[in-house]
Design a protein that fits this description.
Length: 277
Amino acid sequence: MLPWVLLLLIVAVAALLLDSYYRIVTTEYVLEYSNLPDAFDGFRIAVLSDIHAAVFGKDNIRLVSKVRDTAPDIIVIAGDFTDHYDKPPIDGQLAIAENLVSELSLIAPLYYITGNHEWDDGGIRELLPMLEEHGVTVLRNKYVLLESGGESLVLAGTDDPNGPADMTKPEEFVERVRQAEGDSFFIMLEHRNGNLPLYSELGIDLVLSGHAHGGIIRLPFTDGLIGPSREWLPSYTNGLYSMGSTNMVVSRGIGNHTGWPRFLNNPHIPVVILKKG
């Protein structure tokens, strides 16, 4: 009987690996805030991160359909749209990115921040103009005011640290925004997932991040096994974390470039639903 047991185990693991690689999942996070402007009660944000030029069906139809089904008011792309390992070469990656944003822009407004890979592969010089041509708002240490019903909130985004050496530090950026917009409700987009303590100190209401790929391999009672720098048992790799009055939602990402197979770690689209409470 032992060979049959081993065969069944191999088949089960293979099925789980295929599921973890191909089946996109969405997770809703309902977050209540007493300081949320009334007009944004029920506001929905779909978070895409670490796409790494992944393709799910012809013209990325499965990914686009999953995003459409979340009925977002806005879509944020939290870095690593491309992959510095050049799989496929950067021209092919840019074509994938252009096709995807052209489809997603028909669903909801798009906002983008850089990740480490865009800087590493050098494709950012071509990527950013293409995104802006398709109406994507690029937030490189910049912010916009989202407006609804005569009220507004701040949506800000930081450049990845792999960007220019002289970039503004997050605390300086937040101070500049606060000087201009006072105590407005504040959403921060940041590719890397390790700055929850800093943003809690700065009083940011919501942080949206990625970068950690969910810890690559996920087992019960862990926050993922392998971090983006190949560290073991990383923190802040998936879903909702809170510190003080700050919430952070981390996407497990869409693509995979690590060389490690995703296991029990499906491509992930978090959907944040803001509620007045």
